[in-house]
């Protein structure tokens, strides 16, 4: 794997892993629906500014926008809302751990759709090892009340992410549209979809808590706008399954931030689980050895994906 791609993965993991902290803080002032709408609005606004600054434009065509709205539902509006609902009863660290099931869903979907062929045994073992590390961090045999509606909502959000990644990889990526244009359009579509559910819980008074309001701004600009564009870049460069494996790094960031900022548990068992997760990520991202090729051949192969 090339160094720039690893940099994107690390930055994405840090931003995405901090999402659960910002959600937890934002919920002190906003309802789950309000958190979902505001992060979509701020994320879309951030990418729109970048889009205009780089003199690019939104994609055109009804078919493209139809795919954008479907992807926005599964990859943005639905999981954003489910995470906010789930974190009413689930801590930020555990939320990050549960989201690490995304690669498992992504692999199952990829195999079912035929988009993930010729998987090496080491990658399959890596996926399984990552799941075991996640279970070690979760430790369901030690915690009571963790497997409730909140936890189920977060697992459903992880499955929704995987569905969205697969759909984006098949219907939007590699069609000649720059990833910045696609990510901006998708967050705009997600904003429209989130606005539709405002009557279902988004009309409550907002508590003007400074910490919560700062948290929701960071959540929208960085943990949504910047993060989502990086996700699109990784899907375009490496495929939906590799993009989903980033979520295996999320427990490391989410649990650490939860412990440092919110005084959530961080035990020896959790440290051990995070190490296992990192080993699993490394195995999952191992690529089949190929013969040396020129940069032109590499770009040509990427364009044919």
Overview of the structural elements:
There is one protein chain. This protein is an all-alpha fold and 305 residues long. Helices cover 73% and strands 0% of the residues. The protein has helices spanning 3-17, 19-26, 32-53, 62-86, 92-99, 102-113, 121-138, 149-171, 179-196, 210-238, 240-245, 250-262, 268-284, 295-303. The longest helix has 29 residues, at 210-238. The protein starts with a helix and ends with a helix. Mean pLDDT is 83; it is low at 291-305.
Strands, total number: 0
Question: Roughly what fraction of the amino acids lie in strands?
Answer: under 5%
Radius of gyration: 19 Å
Helix share, percent: over 70%
Q: Tell me the major beta sheet.
A: none
The total count of helices amounts to: 14
Distance between the termini: 17 Å
SSE pattern, N- to C-terminal: HHHHHHHHHHHHHH
Shape: globular
Quick check: average pLDDT?
Answer: 83
Structural classification: mainly alpha
The low-confidence runs, each spanning 5 or more residues with pLDDT under 50, are 291-305
């Amino acid at each position: 794997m090339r160094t720039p791609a690893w940099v994107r993965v690390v930055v994405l993991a840090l931003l995405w892993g901090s999402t659960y902290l910002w959600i937890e803080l934002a919920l002190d002032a906003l309802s789950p629906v309000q958190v979902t709408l505001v992060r979509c609005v701020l994320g879309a606004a951030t990418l729109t500014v970048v889009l205009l600054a780089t003199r690019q434009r939104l994609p055109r065509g009804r078919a493209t926008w139809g795919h954008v709205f479907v992807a926005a539902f599964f990859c943005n509006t639905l999981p954003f809302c489910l995470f906010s609902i789930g974190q009413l009863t689930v801590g930020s660290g555990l939320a990050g751990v549960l989201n690490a099931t995304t690669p498992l869903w992504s692999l199952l979907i990829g195999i079912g759709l035929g988009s993930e062929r010729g998987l090496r045994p080491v990658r399959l073992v890596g996926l399984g090892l990552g799941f075991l590390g996640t279970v070690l961090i979760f430790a369901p045999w030690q915690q009571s009340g963790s497997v409730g509606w909140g936890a189920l909502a977060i697992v459903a959000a992880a499955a929704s992410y995987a569905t969205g990644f697969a759909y984006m990889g098949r219907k939007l990526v590699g069609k000649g549209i720059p990833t910045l244009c696609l990510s901006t359009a998708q967050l705009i579509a997600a904003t429209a979809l989130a606005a539709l559910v405002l009557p279902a819980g988004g009309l409550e008074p907002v508590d003007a808590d400074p910490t919560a309001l700062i948290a929701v701004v960071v959540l929208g600009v960085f943990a949504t706008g910047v993060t989502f564009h990086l996700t699109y870049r990784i899907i375009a460069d490496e495929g939906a399954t590799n993009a989903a494996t980033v979520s295996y790094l999320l427990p490391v960031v989410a649990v650490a931030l939860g412990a440092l900022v919110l005084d959530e548990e961080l035990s020896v068992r959790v440290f051990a689980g995070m190490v296992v997760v990192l080993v699993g990520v490394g195995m999952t991202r191992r690529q089949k050895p190929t013969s040396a090729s020129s940069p032109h051949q590499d770009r040509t192969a990427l364009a044919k994906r």
